[in-house]
Write a structure and sequence with these properties.
With 268 residues, the chain is of the alpha+beta class. It folds into two domains: 142 residues, Tetratricopeptide repeat domain (Serine Threonine Protein Phosphatase 5, Tetratricopeptide repeat, Alpha Horseshoe); 105 residues, Ribosomal Protein S8, Chain: A, domain 1, CATH 3.30.1370.110. The protein contains twelve helices and five strands. It has a five-stranded mixed beta sheet. Strand 2, helix 10 and strand 3 form a beta-alpha-beta unit. The longest helix is centred in the C-terminal third of the chain and has 19 residues. 38% of the residues are buried. This is Smr domain-containing protein. Keywords: Repeat. It comes from Haptolina ericina.
Length: 268
């Protein structure tokens, strides 16, 4: 930006957007806000991309209140937030441990006439919910019913759950749902299950999270037995070892409650 000014070139909204996005990627929230202010001083109207990048920068810098303030400023200026604006604000709340604020923003997104929650929005709000697995599972199922989460599980001799496109919170919710509802509903228990978390470059889309670590803790908490595997991006669940306590007790409680599994239908 400074070089453009030295050359006598007036920065455009596209130039500012590129600079703010660079700050967002580098976690430089103060610089992002400074650029946003400079746009207005120069008479360049910030648009949805400008605000969304600044909101994301604030979220990455732990400035969740500033992120929400920017979302409100958009509306006051007549700039309609996009699904990415809402998602960035929700993620800012998630990172700061503010689940109620995240749910409020998600509700605003749901009430928006021009936006539909997508996988990014659901990932963000599921990150925010943390240990609130009741509300998390409800939102997970809502995301599945809307087609935001698709092609994440396969059934056969060795059922598989693929968590590649899921955030940490979404991955935990998916694993608990799959093990507590879907697997026990199978007509015959398989000997093994595969849970794919991805590792290294395969997780680049969600590089800020530790899905493998989160899933490992969830499996340990549930008492799920795993077998050694040479692939760091997957867990191999020993169903026979788990059946003695975990799977058997889950099945019993399902039968007592008359609970029916929803979502996908197991192939015959």
């Amino acid at each position: 930006m400074e070089q453009m000014q030295r050359c006598g070139v007036e920065p455009s909204v596209f130039s500012f957007n590129a600079a703010i996005s660079a700050c967002e990627k580098g976690g430089r929230w103060e610089s992002a806000l400074s650029l946003l202010e400079e746009m207005q001083r120069r008479g360049v109207e910030p648009g949805v991309i400008s605000f969304s990048a600044a909101i994301s920068a604030c979220g990455k810098g732990g400035q969740w209140e500033r992120a929400l303030s920017l979302l409100e400023e958009m509306e006051h200026r007549g700039v309609e937030p996009s699904v990415f604006s809402f998602s960035a604000a929700i993620q800012a709340c998630a990172g700061a441990g503010q689940p109620e604020e995240a749910l409020r923003i998600f509700g605003d997104l749901e009430a928006s006439s021009s936006n539909n929650a997508n996988i990014v929005s659901f990932n963000a709000v599921l990150d925010a919910l943390g240990g609130d697995q009741v509300r998390a599972r409800t939102l997970w199922k809502l995301g599945c019913s809307r087609g935001c989460y698709t092609d994440f599980s396969w059934w056969g001799d060795t059922p598989q759950l693929d968590l590649h496109n899921l955030s940490e919170g979404a991955a935990e919710t998916a694993v608990r749902w799959w093990l507590n509802e879907r697997v026990p509903a199978m007509s015959a228990a398989p000997e093994r299950l595969i849970i794919v978390t991805g590792w290294g470059k395969s997780r680049s889309m969600l590089r800020d999270g530790d899905v493998r670590g989160r899933v490992e803790r969830v499996l340990g908490g549930l008492g799920v037995s795993t077998l050694p595997t040479g692939n760091k991006g997957r867990f191999l669940v020993d169903v026979r070892g788990w059946c003695r306590d975990g799977l058997a007790s889950i099945r019993d409680s399902m039968e007592e409650a008359g609970q029916a599994a929803d979502g996908e239908v197991e192939p015959s």
